[in-house]
Structures are given as C-alpha cells and as structure tokens.
Amino acid sequence: MTDWTRRQVGGLIAGTLLAATAPHVARGIVRPKVVVIGGGIGGATLARYLGDMKTMDVSLVEPNATHVTCFFSNLHLAGLRSLASLTFDLRTLANRHGVSVIRDAAVALDPAARVVELGGGAKLPYDRLAVAPGITLEFGAIGGYDEAAAERMPHAWIAGPQSVLLRRQLESMEDGGLFVIVAPPNPFRCPPAPYERASLVAYYFKQFKPRSKILILDAKDKFSGQELFQDAWSRHYPGMIEWLPAQFIGKIKAVDPAAFSVVTEGQTFKAAVANVIPPQKAGLIAQKAGLADATGWCPVDPATFDSTLQPGIHVVGDAIIGGDMPKSAFSANSQAKACAFAIAAALTGSPRFPPHLFNSCYTFLAPDDAFTNAITFAAEDGKIKTKEMFINKVGESAEVRRKVAHQAIGWYSAFTADVFGGAS
Ligand SMILES: Cc1cc2nc3c(=O)[nH]c(=O)nc-3n(C[C@H](O)[C@H](O)[C@H](O)COP(=O)(O)OP(=O)(O)OC[C@H]3O[C@@H](n4cnc5c(N)ncnc54)[C@H](O)[C@@H]3O)c2cc1C
Fold this sequence. Notes:
Elements: H1 6-21, H2 23-26, E1 33-37, H3 41-53, E2 57-61, E3 66-68, H4 73-77, E4 87-89, H5 91-97, E5 100-102, E6 106-110, E7 115-118, E8 123-125, E9 128-131, E10 135-137, H6 161-172, E11 178-183, H7 193-208, E12 213-218, H8 226-236, E13 241-244, H9 246-249, E14 252-256, E15 261-264, E16 268-270, E17 273-276, E18 280-282, H10 284-288, E19 313-315, H11 329-348, E20 357-366, E21 369-380, E22 383-391, H12 398-420
Parallel strand pairs: 1-2, 1-9, 2-5, 9-19, 11-12, 11-17, 12-13
Antiparallel strand pairs: 3-4, 6-7, 7-8, 10-18, 14-15, 15-16, 20-21, 21-22
Flavin-adenine dinucleotide (FAD) binds next to α3, α4, α11 and β20.
C-alpha cells in the first residue's frame, strides 16, 4: 500500500489545482512555446509579461542587442538627452524575466507547421506566435527618397544612428539656416512627434542659432495637438516655425538629396538640413506573412490582438489597425499586456480578462513646457473605441506645464522599466 505523506498529498492537490489552470504544464507534457517577433516596445512588454507568468517557454526574436526608444529622441535632437540614456539592453529580459532572447530576424512564418524561420537558418517551433515588428518606412513613396537619400536627409523615425546623424547635421548647420521637416500622411507612428520635433529643435536654435528657421511641409491639413503647438510656437519661438499644410503645397513629390531640396506640386524648397519622414506601413515581416490587409496595416481582434487574417498569430503595436488608439509606445505596451493575458488564457487555461486599453503621451513644447493626454479605450464591435479623454489646454499656467514636463521625466523611467524589465 502506498504510504502518502502530508507533503505528497499537498503536492497532489497543488498539482491538481495547477492542472486546472495550466493543463500542459501539470501533465508534464511540455510547457507551451510562445515566440514573440520584435523586441521593441510591444514585443519586449509582451515577452516580459509572459515570462513573468512562468508557465510558458517564451522566446523573443530581435536582430538588435539593444533598443533605443523613439520617445524622448526629440530631446536628443535638441541636445538635452544622450542616446545612451535612451538605450536598453534586451538581456535584462533574459536575466530577470526568463525570456530566451534570440538575436536574429524572422524572415518567414509557416502558420500551418507553426514554425518561424530565422535569417540565420534556424526554425523555431511555436504553440502561439506574436508579431510586433513596428513600422516599415515607405522608401520610394516620395521620389528620390531611398535608404541612401536617408543618409543625407535623415528620417530619424526609428531611433538610433539616424537620430545621431540628424543631431550632428543640426549641430553643424550655420546660424540662419533653414531646417525643413517633411511630415507624413496619416496613419503614422506617434502623431504629435513631428511637431514636438519642430518645437525642441526651435528651442535648440533659440539658444545657439537664433537666426535659423524651421519649415514644416505637411502631407496633411491638420495635425494632432495643433492648437497647443501653435500656441506654444507663438509664445516660445515667435517667427521661427512655419507650417505649410497640404492645401497650400500640394503633394510632396520628390527630394533631391544632392541639392538638399524638397519638391512639392507648386514649389521647390532648399534646406540647410532636411528631415524627411516618409509614409509608413506595418513592419515588413507582417506584410510578407499576410497579416496586413490592403491598407498595409494589420487588422486584429481588439480583445485578444489575434490577427483576423491569420488566426493564432497575434499582432501588437504600431503594426496594427488600432481604431481610435494612436500608434504610440504607451498603446503598444497596453496592447501587449492585454495580448499576454489572452495568450495565457488560450495556452494555459488561466482566467480571461477583458482588455484594459489605455494611452498616455507626454509631448514637449520646450524643456519646461509639456502637455499630456490620457485616454481610455474599450473593445466594442470588433473595434477599439475611445471612452474617456483628458488633454491639457491652451492658456494653462507655466507652473501647470512645468509640472507636466517634470512628470514626463518620471514617466520615462517607470515606463521603460516596465517594458524592458526592471524590478519585478
Ligand atoms: C520621434 C518619436 C517620438 C515618439 N514619442 C513618443 C512618446 O512620447 N510617447 C509614446 O507613447 N510614443 C512615442 N513614439 C512612438 C513609439 O516609439 C512607437 O509607437 C513604439 O516604438 C511602437 O512600438 P512597436 O513595438 O510597435 O515598434 P518598435 O518599438 O519599433 O519595435 C519593433 C521591433 O521589431 C523589430 N523587428 C522588425 N522586424 C523584425 C523581424 N523580421 N524579426 C525580428 N524583429 C523585427 C525591430 O528591430 C524593432 O526592435 C514616438 C516615436 C517617434 C518616432
């Protein structure tokens, strides 16, 4: 007869309970395998939260060893933040959160065999796949603007060497020069960011090159936070920033990198430094894998972030069609958390939670003047819809805005620790 000790019985009960919530794990088969493609904001958050659950084997595929945040990279352009202070080592996800970080790029997906093929030739099997590849810049959408042209007229829309290049060009620009920003059509990564860039570069010019000017050639007729920006430009940088909407300039047709010029339907603008931000689509791997529709972006079920085109593959971050949710780091982080719970529910039987979707962005108008918005969303009728929204207003006191700028610094530390793994 078996002599059951108290410890064995306790272990059996614990095992039974675990079996109810995590069947694969408890039956000693194998832990479910989740592969996450892309170690930026969405992918790193997702891998970190899945890793912390300790019930799945989580692999993160990312070609870069570190991630440089786009948010706060406009502060770098103004000389207010080093690139090193915006750079995060993905090894923290391995060391503290049990994620296998694989330094490679995904080149093909095989949903039928449930395998991801990597550039180095390895094949990674998965039970569940999540894709967070961010954006592809549409080189060629503006005539003459290709990767080589971006070495002379940087986009600086994926932070890293491009941000350093643009900063260097601004530093070596003569006082009195014209800095041209080409702003992209909707939808694109971080709607207020081109205008935050104009504001912070204007701050830099005001200190060091006060005769210089900034011209924004826009593919749109209006932009996010327009009233707040235009109010700040007249208060902080009168006469320095000019914004020309699509209705005045027509289509942005071409660039000439040799001449530093931008050609619109009616006119050619010659710059001392040109920042060309091209139109955007979902990261290439999402397009190649049939996760993107005719718009170039990925439709998803907003409750689980499961692709509606390739069920069983989740997509989060800038690559998705996010309804009312803007393409922002905060959105990507919020989506990734909802997605982590949906994956855990599907693979381990853990409870399902309704998604809590939230976005909060801090935008600098000057180092001590920032505005924020905070928006809650709900998944309704297959779409993400705005529920409640707060945004700062024109006419607030300098003290209110100084406090927001101060909060933004604290937000950056807490948010990046949440994404890339800090104390858990
Ligand atoms: C100037 C600027 C300022 C911004 N400011 C803010 C802000 O203040 N607040 C805010 O919330 N957001 C801000 N954003 C937006 C924010 O940076 C993005 O929304 C966010 O990075 C999106 O996260 P993501 O995971 O979708 O993409 P990313 O963070 O770009 O990550 C995508 C990752 O996928 C990897 N990848 C791509 N293809 C593959 C592949 N085939 N295999 C493996 N890996 C792959 C890439 O290398 C990359 O690391 C700003 C953006 C810019 C440009």
